[in-house]
Amino acid sequence: MEKILSSIYLFILAGFCYAQASADSILNQGLTLYRTEKASWVATDLLLRDFPELKSQVRGYVSYIDSNNVITVFHGKKPDNILLKFIFDSLPSPEKYAVKTRETATNFEKKLIRMRQYALEILSNDTENFFDFYQNTSFNLIPIISKNERKVYILTGPKTPGFVLFGNDYLLTFSENNELVSKEKLHNTLIALPVGSDEDNTVLKMTMHSHVKTPYITETDICTMLLYKNFVQWKTHTVISEKFASIFDLENETLQIIPIEAWEKSQGIEKD
User: Fold this and answer.
1) How many Cα atoms within 13 Å fall on the side-chain side of residue 203?
2) Cα–Cα distances in Å, from 269 out to 27, 140, 240, 264, 272?
3) 205 alpha-carbon distance from chain centroid
4) What is the pTM of this model?
5) Within the chain, what is the greatest distance between any pair of CA atoms?
6) Distance (Å, rounded) from C-alpha 2 to C-alpha 19?
């Protein structure tokens, strides 16, 4: 009997360790997406504010992490022609940055730009109706090159204020020759959550949504919450799947993944 109980304990412990390892990986990738997309947001605002004369010449942009910096480049009609380059610290902000103009794209920047362009072509020529398009939304493309991986994440953002959008996000994986290897839907649908409560003197402290396609919260969920962290009332967000609950603390930027039974018990949920 002791051997059986010991085996059960080790199995449960292994499950917790695996879930936490997954949490660490998801959180790190989510932070990478957030930092690059945040740089794109801030750089676009700076472009419109300080370099309006270049707006009509811009044909695209990419952001990427370089050591402790996050960099955004805007290119012209020729992708190798960099019109503007913004260099931010680890966390992009409009208060502290360096700017360069009229440069030639580095080899790494060329790879990112071309990969993003290929992803845009796939998105625009969707003969299989793989992608869903919603009114009052827009797609944001985030190309990532790390180690031997080449990925483009596609997020859906709102054009109207008051809501945070989860879902209708995709992951395109490319080969080193920019050939499409796979495309994946990360959520089944689009989920719109209010930034706060409609009732006076009531604070919306937490929100949640459920997953069918994946057992855990996604890196795109993490990215979205961090982008809107300063605009929402809620402090925690929970993603529920059949076997796990993923709990993200927006204030501390921590992620915990626990078995669904443990989460239900913590919420006082009893099942027959």
Assistant:
1) 7
2) 27, 38, 14, 5, 10
3) 22
4) 0.90
5) 77
6) 26
